[in-house]
Design goal:
Elements: E1 2-4, E2 7-13, E3 28-41, E4 51-64, E5 67-78, E6 88-98, E7 113-125, E8 128-139, E9 146-158, E10 168-181, E11 184-195, E12 205-214, H1 216-219
Parallel strand pairs: 1-12
Antiparallel strand pairs: 2-3, 3-4, 4-5, 5-6, 6-7, 7-8, 8-9, 9-10, 10-11, 11-12
Length: 223
């Protein structure tokens, strides 16, 4: 199994630091902008050779009474490699979730599972389009604001290399765990995608994006 691991040095400008999917909060919305720089990327301007990359990410999450919507858009630029290849590009994902309670399901207040409902997504980039459809479950885990697990059909609609790729699966964990060290506030959050073999030489993949965040606003006296 191929593992695609990107090491990033991230400077994050926070508009809001909170993700409360599956926590029962209604009519909640947050948007943030992030600036990332990393090296050792492949399939960028250098093709299969490594390239450095700067990425600006716009990320948004809204939770409402019957579900939630999450999306992000990456705008990135590669800094080295042959000038004949693409220097800048974009990539985005959007997911919509419908709570099981909106479909008449009930999970109780004391159970380990707080919700199970349908989830739909679109992944889109340059000459690249994938549709995802499946189920996402939210769990009540002590110490976590968010702990969800989704299973999807991963349907290749458009492939940039015109390969006839198979429909496969994607399994996704998402988490957010706030904690404090002394008077300082932190959070450990992120996601991991497990994507199955798609045929045509495309092996199974792990896409892993953990983050450790320090609440600088709180450290300087903010609410």
């Amino acid at each position: 199994m191929e593992k695609l691991l990107h090491k990033n040095i991230a400077a994050t400008a926070m508009v809001a630091v909170s993700m409360l999917a599956g926590s029962g909060v209604q009519a909640f919305s947050t948007t943030e902008a992030q600036l990332h720089f990393g090296d050792g990327y492949r399939l960028g301007r250098n093709g299969l050779d490594e390239t450095a990359r700067t990425t600006i990410t716009l990320e948004h999450f809204t939770a409402f009474e019957h579900g939630d919507v999450f999306f992000f858009v990456d705008l990135f630029s590669d800094h080295d490699g042959p000038s004949t290849n693409t220097q800048s590009s974009h990539y985005g994902e959007i997911y919509g979730h419908l709570n099981g309670s909106a479909l008449g399901l009930s999970f109780g207040e004391s159970g380990f599972i707080s919700d199970i409902g349908p989830d739909f997504g679109i992944n889109q980039g340059d000459d690249f389009l994938v549709g995802l459809y499946g189920l996402r479950a939210s769990f009540k885990v002590p110490g976590f604001n968010v702990f969800t697990f989704g299973v999807y059909a991963y349907d290749n609609v458009t492939d940039p290399f015109d390969r006839n790729l198979d429909t496969t699966y994607q399994a996704t964990f998402v988490w957010n765990a706030p904690f404090e060290v002394g008077s300082q506030k932190f959070s450990a959050q992120g996601f991991v995608d497990f994507i199955g073999d798609q045929g045509a030489g495309v092996d199974s993949q792990i896409v892993f994006s953990p983050q450790l965040r320090w609440d600088i606003g709180h450290a300087f006296g903010g609410a």
